[in-house]
Amino acid sequence: MSSWKSLLLRIGEKCPEYGGNADFKDHIESCFGIVRRELDQSADDILLFLLECSEQLPHKIPLYGTLVGLLNLENEEFVKKVLEKIQTNLQDALDSGNCNRIRILMRFLTVLMCSKVLQPSSLVIVFETLLSSAALTVDEDKGNPSWQARADFYITCILSCLPWGGTELVEQVPEEIDRVMVGIESYFSIRRRVSNAGLSVFEDTNENNKLLDEKDFLEDLWVRIQDLSSAGWKLESVPRPHLCFEPQLVAGKSHDFGPITCPEQPNPSAATFGISYGRQRNEAELKYPQRIQRLNIFSASKAEDLRPIDRFVAEEYLLDVLLFLNGCRKECAAYMAGLPVPFRYEYLMAETIFSQLLLLPEPPFKPIYYTLVIIDLCKALPGAFPAVIAGAVRALFERIADLDMECRTRLILWFSHHLSNFQFIWPWEEWAHVLDLPKWAPQRVFVQEVLEREIRLSYWEKIKQSIENAPALEELLPPKGGPNFKYSGEDVRDRTEKALSLELNNLVKGRQTFREIITWVEDSVIPVHGSDVALRVVIQTLLDIGSKSFTHLITVLERYGQVIGKLCPDQDRQIMLIAEVSSYWKNSSQMTAITIDRMMGYRLLSNLAIVRWVFSSSNVDQFHISDRPWEILRNAVSKTYNRITDLRKEISSIQRSFLLAEEAASKARAELETAESNLTLMDGEPVIGENPVRMKRLKSNAERAKDEEISVRDSLDAKEALLARAIEENEALFLSLYKSFSNVLAEPLCEAFKDGNVMPGDQADEMAIDLESSSAMELDKENGRPKKSHSNGRRAGNGYNLDEREQWCLSTLGYVKAITRQYASEIWSFIEKLDADVLTEDVHPLFRRAVYSGLRRPLDEL
C-alpha cells in the first residue's frame, strides 16, 4: 500500500505509520505533508480514497475534514472536485435510498463546513431541502403519510449532523439554523408518533397505554439536540481537530455546494389507514428502517453520568464501525475498543451490540457476526468486557419471560455459541433454581434450550462435565444422542418387520438400484404386509443406513429418494414419513430437523405436510417447552420463502440479460438492414453493393442475435411461471399455517383469557425498550447480578403464577407474532385473503392482535 494511503487509512490511530504517536494534530500535519506532495501525481486516486475512508471510517470524519480544509489552502481545484464528487454521491444515495451513505455524507459536509471548506449557507440549503421533502411527505393533503419512515429519516439525518457542527452554524448563520430548527419543530406538530408495537424486544402486555406516554426515537433525538443547544452546543464525544488549525483554515476559500433533490413521493393510497396504506408503510419502513432500538439493560450508574447526546454520538460510532467493518471482525473489535471519546463505554458498547443482535424485524447482519465481535472484544478487553457481557446475560435472563420469542431464540443461539468459544464455562449454580420452577417456566426452558444447543456444538459428556457445579441441571439435558432404530436388539416386537428390514439392508449393500427396490416393495412387501408396514420398514432401514454421518444421509436420499417418494405420494403418507423420522431421531432434535429439511429439499416432503405434522396433538403439547417443532416449522417456511427470493434474483438477472440480448439483436438487425439498403437494381435484378462475405456474416449475426433473444425470453418466461407457482405455494402455506394457529389457539385462549387481555394493567412490564428512562434492574457492583431479582422469570414484581395453559397461549402467540413479522412483506401481498379466510369476526382478539402486531398494522383496525 502506498505511504499516503497508509497515512490516510491509519490517521488518528496509535500505529507504526505515525511512529506510535497518538496526537491528532501531529497526525493531520504529517498526513497533509505527504498528501500535498502527491496531489500532482495522484490527485484522482487521492480523491477517491479519501472519500472512501471518510465513508467507511466515519468516526474519523473530523480528521478527514480538517485535512481537506488544509488542502483547500493549497489546491482549491482539488477541493472543488471533492465537493462535486460528494454532491454526486449524495444525489445517487438519495435516489437509491442508501440510508447509511446519505447520513455519513451529510456528516462529512457538516465537518467540511467547520473546516471552512463549505459555505454554512450551502449546508443549510441541504438541510432545508430534506426538511421540505419530509414536511411534504407527512402532509395528509399533498403528501403520502404512509412514507413517514423516509421523512423521519431525513429529519434524523439533519439532527444527527448538529453534534458535529452546531457550534459553527449558530456562530456563522444563526438566523438560518434557527429557521431550520423552527421548521423541524413544525414537522413534529404534523407527523404521527411512531409506535414500536411489534418491534419491541421486550413484550409489554399493556403496550398500547404505554406507547401513549413514551417518546419515539426521533422525538427522543430532538430532545437530546435541544439539550445540547441549551448547553451551548458543547459536548465531549466529538473531537474538534479543526480548532487546532483555525488560524490557517480561516484563510481558505469556502465553496458552494451543488443543488440536490429528493425523490418524488410515491402515489398515496386512497386513505390514511387500511390495507393499501399498510402495504406502503411496510415498504417504506423496510427501505428506511430505524437504526437502533435501545436496550437499557444496565442501570444508569453504569453509564458514568453520560449526557444523552454523548450517548447518542457514541452509539453512532459503534453502529458505524459494526456496519462498515463487517468483513473484518478483528479490525472491527479493535476500532470499537478505541473510539475517540474521553469516557469509558464498555456497558454502552455491550448494550449497542445486543441491540443489533436482537433488532427486529431482523438484524443488519447475520447473528454470527455479532457473536464473533463479542468474542474478539472479550479477548481484546479481558479485564473489563467479559464481566460486562456476563452482566448483560444475567440481566436478560431475569427478563426472559418478557423477551420476544424471536429474540429469545437468537439469545439462545448466541449464548450457546459464545460459551463454546470459552470452554463452556459459566456459573450454572446461579441458575440451578430453575429446577424448582414448572417445566414450562421461561427461565427453565431457556436453560434447557441453551444446554441442548451446546451439545450440538460439542458432545453430551462434555456438556455434562461443564455443569458439574450444578449437577442437578443434568435433568435438563436432552437424552444422550443416538438413533432409535426400531429393529435393533433382540427384543424386537415384530420379527417379521425386522426380517424385512434385514432383507432391505442386504439389497442396499448389494448395490441394488432404486427401481429394483421399488419392485421388491411392490411385489414382496405391500401385497403381504400392507403399505404402512412397507413405509415403516423402508424409512427406518434407510435412515439407519444413513445415520453414520450427514454425508451418508445425503447419499441415501440421493440414491433411494424415489423409493420414499413412491411410498409417500400425498400429504397423509408424508405425515407418516415425518413421524417415522421423528421417532428414529427422537433423541436428537438436530438430526430430526436436518433430515426433514433435506427431505423437503429433495421434494420428498411438502411444506403443507410439515405444517400439518407440526400442528399434530403431540407437537402442539410441546409448543411452550421445546423449540423442536418450531425449528422444523421455521426451516420449512424459510425454505419456501428462499425459493421465491432466489427466483426473483434469477429473474432480475435474466431481465438484464434480455435487455442486452434485445439491444444486440436490434443492433444486428439495423446493420443488416443498412447493408441491404445498399443493394442496387440492374436489369431488374438486385446487385450486391457490399462485400458478399460481409453480407453473409451480417445475416448470420442477425439470426444468431435473434435466436439468443428468443432463448433468453423463453428462459425468462419459464422462470416467471416458476415464480408465479412458488408464490401460490407460499400463499397456500401461510394460509394453512394461520388456519392451524387459529384452530389450536381458539379454545385455550377462550379458557385462559376470557376478557381478551393477557393480564391486568398493574402487572405490565417494568422494563422494555425505553428511549429515555433507565432500567429497573440495577446490577450488583461485584458480580453483575441484579439486585432486584425475579428469579422465577415472571413479569417484574410478581411471582410466577401462570398455569401451563396460560404459558402455552403466550408462547404460541409469541411465535405467531414472530413469524408474521419475519414474513410481513409476503403476507401483505395476500392480506385480503388472510382477512377473509382466517381473521374473521369469530377469531379471538388476542390472536388477531398478534398477527396485526407482527404486520405493524394499526391496532385500531381491530
TrEMBL record:
One of its GO terms (biological process) is 7-methylguanosine mRNA capping. It comes from the Eukaryota. One of its GO terms (cellular component) is nucleus. Gene3D superfamilies: 1.25.40.180. Residues 8-229 form the MIF4G domain. Residues 658-685 form a coiled coil. Residues 777-798 are annotated as: Disordered. Keywords: Coiled coil, mRNA processing, mRNA splicing, Nucleus. Belongs to the NCBP1 family. This is Nuclear cap-binding protein subunit 1-like isoform X1. It comes from Coffea arabica (Arabian coffee).
